[in-house]
Design goal:
By secondary structure, the protein is an alpha/beta fold. 46% of the residues lie in helices and 13% in strands. Bound molecules: (2S)-2-hydroxybutanedioic acid. Belongs to the class-I pyridoxal-phosphate-dependent aminotransferase family.
Length: 394
């Protein structure tokens, strides 16, 4: 049986992680996988996370199963963090999932179960695993124009033109904030135009929100998701705590499904529970409990929000430093977009060959689509990167 297996294509982000690890050059710079690193190159455990973990060690009395959807207190805390009061709670079904990827996977399976004819529209480009999971599940999918590689901003006209081809019942996957991989985001006026199109054509939004707090701030980064959910009848949301709580390996995510009417929520919730049961039974608990402990304790929450804000500001500072260094070295403003983009990533908009040149000649690792993780830089490596970019003719 096992000898019949065929080799699977490598995930390009994870393959890059392995290549970086094996590179013996001491000057190598990792701008690949989306993990925050501080100025010392360390991915720290956040202070509030450590404190919540200590509290759990002392106070937790049982590791018995909780429920198929996880602890309702976790869902409540996350719904309030992301949606505030944009949607009445009785319209929302929610289930804890293994990370944001787990939430994406459950959302896609729910779509397939309820409407096998639905096509899922993803931005071009999007996080590669979106397309990979859609294909794995045999769900029809297609792209809408999103990134303008000339301006390195959003090709908004192209996006609207493509989405106007979608059919009623199709699902449009949108990044709530901090678009991955490009770093280019819609403004709220553009979001409103997208909402009008969704409503006019009967399209269902699915929002992937994995970087709340990494762009313009915790509230600001949730504004688009709140606007969408308060303006459409139905919405699916895949949320991740990996980045904003720094609990990557704990696999802490939430899948939310918002029904038009509250009397549909119990059945929807039952479907979410069923999906969890079929795929992995009970979701991981530790990360979710840490997040709940933080969000429901005023002091821990304030400390977490302040550390997250420092993280956000350090990434913004690196963006500005890189943009101005590039301006100085290239004598042009063509890299100004780096300071405009938000979140962990920016897409340089260059060719895979030049990305490979950066890796081979300078030991600088970024994803072949020219996505770079801003948080992989520090004040010392920014000039090294800027120099390599200009020297290699990007
Ligand atoms: C990324 O985009 O680098 C992260 O979300 C990590 C991953 O799982 O790909």
């Amino acid at each position: 049986m096992l000898s019949n297996l065929k080799a699977q294509p490598a995930d390009k982000i994870l393959a890059l992680m392995a290549m970086y690890r094996e590179d013996p050059r001491p000057t190598k710079i990792d701008l690949g996988v989306g993990v925050y690193k501080n100025a010392q190159g360390v991915t720290p455990v956040m202070r509030a996370v450590k404190a919540a973990e200590r509290r759990l060690v002392e106070e937790q009395t049982s590791k018995a199963y909780v429920g198929l959807a996880g602890d309702p207190a976790y869902s409540d805390a996350m719904i309030s963090l992301i949606l505030s009061d944009a949607v009445s709670r009785d319209r929302i079904a929610a289930a804890a999932t293994p990370g944001g990827t787990g939430a994406v996977r459950q959302a896609f399976e729910l779509i397939r179960n309820t409407n096998p004819n639905a096509k899922v529209w993803v931005s071009n480009p999007t996080w590669p695993n979106h397309v990979s999971i859609l294909n794995y599940l045999n769900i029809q999918n297609t792209t809408y124009r999103y990134f303008d590689s000339e301006t390195r901003g959003v090709d908004f006209d192209g996006m609207l033109e493509d989405l106007s081809e979608a059919s009623a019942g199709d699902v449009v996957l949108l990044h709530g904030c901090c678009h991955n991989p490009t770093g280019a985001n819609l403004n709220l006026t553009q979001w409103q135009t997208v909402i009008d199109l969704l409503n006019e054509k009967g399209l269902i939004p699915m929002i992937d929100i994995a970087y709340q707090g990494f762009g313009d701030g915790l509230e600001e980064d949730a504004a688009a998701t709140r606007l969408v959910t308060s303006s459409v009848p139905e919405c699916l949301i895949a949320a991740s705590c990996s980045k904003n709580f720094g609990v990557y390996r704990e696999r802490t995510g939430l899948f939310m499904a918002i029904s038009e009417k509250a009397d549909n929520t119990a059945v929807t919730q039952g479907n979410l529970n069923h999906l969890n049961r079929q795929n992995f039974s009970f979701p991981p608990d530790h990360g979710a409990r840490v997040v709940t402990t933080i969000l429901t304790d005023d002091a821990l929450r304030a400390d977490w929000a302040s550390e997250l804000e420092d993280t956000r500001l350090s990434m913004l500072g690196l963006r500005e430093q890189l943009a101005s260094e590039l301006q100085r070295l290239s004598g042009s403003d063509r890299f100004g977009f780096l300071a405009q983009h938000r979140g962990m990533f920016s897409q340089l908009g260059t060719t895979p060959d030049l990305v490979e040149k950066l890796r081979a000649d300078y030991g600088i690792y970024m994803v072949s689509d020219s996505r770079l993780n801003i948080a992989g830089l520090n004040a010392t490596t920014v000039p090294i990167l800027a120099n390599a970019i200009v020297e290699s003719g990007i």
